[in-house]
Design a protein that fits this description.
With 97 residues, the chain is an alpha+beta fold. The chain has four helices and four strands. It has a four-stranded mixed beta sheet, with helices on both faces. The two termini are 26 Å apart.
Length: 97
């Protein structure tokens, strides 16, 4: 199963894009939707997520807005991959990189 960890916006004003980094929960392998990852199997987004995981002892420090609905959080954690993805997209902090 794949779980969305982080959404990034590009820092290039002339070419704004969104990249999503996910983790395969069976293999712990990170993937990214950016064009750079598709060609090299690595990118700055995946490297940033990997660095955060290492810095926090193997756990990714997901950040959410203050308006998180607790019932929605419980449902997203216990639900399937799509429920967690929708929760992260709705409440997760978006980084610019």
């Amino acid at each position: 199963m794949s779980k969305l960890l982080q959404v990034f916006l590009s820092d290039d004003a002339s070419n704004v894009s969104v990249s999503e980094v996910s983790i395969d929960t069976d293999t712990d392998r990170l993937t990214c939707t950016c064009p750079g990852f598709k060609g090299r199997n690595t990118c700055k987004h995946a490297r940033e997520v990997e660095a955060r995981i290492r810095a926090f002892g193997g756990v990714y420090p997901m950040e959410f807005t203050d308006r998180v609905d607790e019932e929605e959080l419980v449902a997203a954690i216990s639900g399937g991959e799509d429920m967690l993805r929708q929760f992260v997209l709705k409440y997760g902090k978006v980084d610019v990189l």
